[in-house]
Amino acid sequence: MSARLPIEIVGGGLAGLALGLALRREGVPVTVFESGDYPRHRVCGEFISGLGDDTAASLGLREFLADAWPHRVVTYHLRGRPLRPIRLPAPALGISRHTLDARLARAFVESGGHLRTHTRADTSLSPDGRVHAAGKRRDGPFWVGLKVHLRNLDLVTDFEIHLGERCYLGLSRVETGAVNACGIFAPQEHAERGFGLLLAYLRTAGLGALAERLRAADPDPGSFCVTAAPLGDRRIAPSGRICIGDACASIPPFTGNGLAMALQGAESAAGPLLAYCSRDSSWGEAAREVASAQRARFSRRLMAASLIHPFFLGTWQQSCLAAFINSRIVPFGALYSVLR
Ligand SMILES: Cc1cc2nc3c(=O)[nH]c(=O)nc-3n(C[C@H](O)[C@H](O)[C@H](O)COP(=O)(O)OP(=O)(O)OC[C@H]3O[C@@H](n4cnc5c(N)ncnc54)[C@H](O)[C@@H]3O)c2cc1C
């Protein structure tokens, strides 16, 4: 049997590492280029919704998710007022990126993968054998994403979503028992830095009581991070190149489905790439197959999420959302089921 063709992956986030690991298990020589390092905190709600056990199993990831915090109920709050709790159709997983990305990176290296950290690759180049998994595309609109881990914070249910003026923030328990506070906000000027910046954003958004609640808890200063957060981009990347995760398309954060999509994108790409590496198909054929599999898998949920997202950010839309939730008119359990 001739040696398998090598694969390069640009971006060692969840999508890139999961794909790299799956290909290594099939004996493919894989190099992952990652501009950062591990472990590190990322701006992320760290709440994985819509990941089927079949995907975790086919990528060999069950062991890495085994200690994730199981979430079954979400409670929305409109400007501090709790709404009717919603039972999720299937448990979601709470796990920190600090832990999960580092676990995958270690497993990738142990499997013989070549991980080049602190190495930024040129994403404009796309030779055969290169997969793009470098995260969000660079054309906005971008909001501000803030995240911090807190201890000694009691929650109404293990997952709360707070709606404020042009913002929403999730409080989600993760595997360590800490609570991850992560939100997106319309950009503003604030003099505060670090945790104080998150509190300033909350106060400006009419969530002063929530800010006081967080202030009384114990923040982990090392976990604070901030980023330019995309609101989602439902355009699936064109099929000339192989793109997975946010580099393919990004779903609005409220869904808690971006991480599941990153893993499902890796799952969809693994088979066609293996055929290419075994010389059973050309690079062009593999690229077309990956793009069409992702289009079939993701288009409906990207469309649904982009229609619902404005209800999380506009003032009157948030009031409608709250009324829908409390009146039981909208079957939220069924809506979450669309995101699979
Ligand atoms: C505020 C916010 C909250 C969110 N909350 C959730 C949530 O609760 N649940 C959920 O499922 N999803 C959530 N998401 C979405 C989720 O974070 C993404 O969908 C997910 O991280 C995509 O994974 P990825 O591997 O494609 O990209 P990333 O995780 O972004 O990884 C890309 C990697 O590529 C590296 N990189 C970038 N450019 C280069 C380059 N040129 N060369 C080398 N390396 C490069 C980066 O350093 C990074 O490590 C949230 C997003 C935001 C903005």
What does this protein structure show overall?
- This protein is an alpha/beta fold and 340 residues long.
- The chain is 35% helix and 24% strand.
- The chain has one domain (7-139, 232-338): FAD/NAD(P)-binding domain (3-Layer(bba) Sandwich), CATH 3.50.50.60.
- The protein has 10 helices and 14 strands.
- The strands form 2 sheets. Strands 3, 4, 5, 6, 9, 10, 11, 12 and 13 form a 9-stranded mixed sheet that branches. Strands 7-2-1-8-14 form a 5-stranded parallel sheet.
- A hairpin with a 2-residue loop joins strand 4 and strand 5 (81-82).
- Helix 5 packs antiparallel against helix 6 (208-215) and helix 7 (258-277) runs antiparallel to helix 8.
- The model has no long low-confidence stretch (mean pLDDT 93).
- The structure holds flavin-adenine dinucleotide.
- Flavin-adenine dinucleotide (FAD) binds at residues 10-16, 33-36, 43-48, 120-121, 123, 133-135, 145, 182, 184, 229, 245-247, 250, 253, 256-260, 262.
- Flavin-adenine dinucleotide binds at residues 10-16, 33-36, 43-48, 120-121, 123, 133-135, 145, 182, 184, 229, 245-247, 250, 253, 256-260, 262.
